[in-house]
Amino acid sequence: MVMKADMLVTGGLLVDGTGAAPQVGDVAVADGRIIAVGDVSAIDASGAETLDAQGCIVTPGFVDIHTHYDGQAIWADRLRPSTDHGVTTVVIGNCGVGFAPCRPGDHDALIGLMEGVEDIPGVVMAEGLDWSWESFEDFLDAVDARPHDCDIAAYLPHSPLRVYVMGERGIAREPASESDLSQMRALAARAIDAGALGCATSRLYFHRTADGELIPSFNAGEEELHALAAGIVDAGGGVLQLVPNYENPDVSDELDLMARIATHHEITVTFTGTTSTPGIAEMLERRRARGADLMAQIFPRPIGMVVGLDLSWNPFRFCDAFEPLVPLSASERAARMRDPALRATLIAQQPDIARFPLARQARNFANMFPMTPGFKYEPDASESVADRAAARGVSPEEEAYDLLLEDDGGAMLLVAMGNYVAGNLDSVGALIGHEGTVLGLGDGGAHYALICDASYPTSVLIHWVRDRKTGRIALQDAVRELTSKPASVVGLQDRGILRAGCKADLNVIDLQRLELHLPYAECDLPAGGKRLLQDASGYRATILSGQVTYRDGKPTGALPGKLVRGRQHAPG
């Protein structure tokens, strides 16, 4: 029987997601699935939509397993900025924060939690969320009810679960009782049955509520993590996602904790990794050799934040003299800050960061770089605010102050908080492709006016594949890291590979013309909330379930994205 295609992608360099050498060929699609790859001469293509991919690479759609579109998936159809960069599947519920399960009286508590941990303004969530759910299962139904421009999978977040079970005791981080643990285990199993990929939690000291309080899951006992893992296993298996407490001076303690959970329950534990820890690869290898399925999520460029007068934070944001400027626009702030008296006052003051310890990084001048046209995410140390200040003979505070006033207050500075060991990304390159690591941490949907890391797939192709002077990554290896590997880690075996039977999620990319533009602020969230977006040139088409969702970087209006309910088996 001759198969009939409804779409053909022709003449492209096929990079299939497995790590195999690229080959020129075609891809045939029917009913949202790939039906042939390479030679499609046996396929009936009469009447099929044809996309000419000559001169381009053709890849599977990218899979981002660490996002926070929990709210955006409720109020928006498009999951930008991820979908501007070839992403066709995202996973939400990471870091143990989210909006379900939630009793009606706890709405404000969960909004405050997400506002503090993920820098989403409370007013945005208050207007954007309709709270048409209480259980996690109902939340999944709410996500599923809206069409989207990519597929969405979800974890059950630990902090809302803890509050749902324990109420005020959970918010106060009291130890869970046996009854509490039993309820959490049962609810975790129910979530997996309903379609969750697993559970997610955080032990990170820097994760705070909007009031500066530690999050409910921060010091949850090991037995509580075992209860979550047991619930996952009760329902057939899945993943535990975890943010370790890197304030713990002995990182090996955190790795041992995760290894105990992974081996006891025979599940994957994927966690926020850091290249700043000496010997992290060897630590991983030892525990994996003993049977612990640990997968460190690493970020392929500096982990950091973007600061500026038009954004959430800047080096002077938490100074007393800056408070009168908070209600003003960026240009109005810049105009006021040109006053010599205010300049002297702000430069002399120290910020009060007691509520948000992470804000100290907004003065990490040695690793702060102005973002100007042509900016590269591996800048030379001489470009830092500290080095620029030394060259001018001024203090770093003065240099940062003057830079912030450029572009009428619209200037942006990147703070490279992590990964940027010795002023380069060599430590990152050494871990990309390691059997115990996976690319992630793009955080799309979070830190709206503080980061725009969801653009990292474009950075991987430009920086690591095409432009880096040394230590480049082979195209087929980089594509595997963006597609089949993250999909496999979370159990989505039906995507991430150009193979007959797999989902027809594809990208057609002009690699030589691929360009990542500077971030920009836009007030398009509910209640006029602000976020950073970042565009790219060179994406000729993004295809989801056999439908073109983006053409030359512009949305087509097609919204075939669905909720992915649970782990998916490989075809065949």
Automatic annotation (TrEMBL):
InterPro entries reported for this sequence: Amidohydro_3, Metal-dep_hydrolase_composite, Metal_Hydrolase, Metallo-dep_Hydrolases_sf
CDD domains tied to this protein: D-aminoacylase
Record Gene3D superfamilies: Metal-dependent hydrolases (3.20.20.140)
GO terms, molecular function: hydrolase activity, acting on carbon-nitrogen (but not peptide) bonds, in cyclic amides
Chain segments carrying region Disordered: 553-572
Source organism superkingdom: Bacteria
Any Pfam family the entry gives: Amidohydro_3
UniProt keywords, alphabetically: Hydrolase
A Gene Ontology term for the protein's cellular component: cytosol
Domain Amidohydrolase, first and last residues per copy: 49-550
Record PANTHER family: COLLAPSIN RESPONSE MEDIATOR PROTEIN, HYDRANTOINASE/DIHYDROPYRIMIDINASE FAMILY MEMBER
Protein name in the entry: Amidohydrolase 3
Organism expressing this protein natively: Novosphingobium pentaromativorans US6-1
